[in-house]
Automatic annotation (TrEMBL):
Lineage: Bacteria, Bacillati, Actinomycetota, Actinomycetes, Micrococcales
2Fe-2S ferredoxin-type domain span: 284-375
Keywords: 2Fe-2S, FAD, Flavoprotein, Iron, Iron-sulfur, Metal-binding, Oxidoreductase
Biological source species: Microbacterium testaceum
Name of the protein described by the UniProt record: Phenylacetate-CoA oxygenase/reductase subunit PaaK
PROSITE patterns documented for this protein: 2FE2S_FER_1, 2FE2S_FER_2, FAD_FR
Amino acid sequence: MTMTDATPPAAAPRARARFHTLRVAEVRPLTPTAIEVTFAVPDDLADAYDYAAGQYVALRARVDGEELRRSYSLCRPPARGSLSVGIKRDPDGRFSSWAHEGLRPGDEIDVMSPQGTFVSKASTSTGHVVAIAAGSGITPIMALATDVLERSADARMTIVYANRSSTDVMFVDELADLKDRYPSRLTLHHVLSREQRAAPVFSGRIDEERLRLILSRLLVPASVDEWFLCGPFALVELCREVLADVGVARERVRFELFTAGEGDAPAQTGGARPVRVRDDQPARRIDFTLDGQSASVETPVAANETILAAALRVRPDVPFACAGGVCGTCRARVIEGSVSMTENYALEPDEIERGYVLTCQSHPTSDAVRVDYDG
């Protein structure tokens, strides 16, 4: 789920994402349409689930006989032995509806090891961090805010949080508690599109005019060390464009999307479907390495399969989560051949320069392609 304009310094190589079965310890209502789900992490898996504030996990479950996967940001600062995610129900979301209706303490579900680069660049912070979030976009911000404020007595955090109404505000009590703990270092602005606030700037949808008003009256962009944007595609894109226009350096902005456009992330099964390779049709060969083992698959040119979809036909354990170009779980490095990548909301510019692609969005454009998931 993580997309970023900035590259963390001395970033460690991404560990191979793996699923483990975890037990649900608690399901807690947050709003009429949102819940917090906490998983118990046994001691023998604690290292595998060590994470940084701002990262996410993918959940996997069988719903009505079909495997579904969905990525959710971790909403609590790192704590050994447990991890928590916030799940907001989407009326058209099969996974979120299933979780709200059927997930109970004691249930077991497959949880992927934490991934993502939506994290603070600095190991310690004495500067000013600003987060702009909407709806469930507050989820990773909760972990980030707590982490930033606890890590340094000199750090400051400003959160601009947009919702339709006060009843839609996730983690309302936790945000209030955080404000009480750090009254001089945490500034919290609630923007409600369907409720009248005392200040007009906080009443209405965050469009370009309102965002520029917020930046001119409430924030001094030049004084901000890091920006974190999290929410729907339209809001995040608006914020990125306006911040760039007012002179905010690209490397200071980090962003995360919960969807790559309208509605749920597409094709949660990775787009895998029955494909028949016929001798009388042109095909391309895909070779890939995963966990040190090599595999090959042919894909008809006419099928226009992604590398991920083709690979899943011969290796069901190929890693993926959203299949929408958002999370980056399916990242692999192109060793030979060429591909065309449709969307990219996860890879950083330096990764693309080094040959990495999102296999859920990449289509072979040469007769043979070789990619490495381990690289």
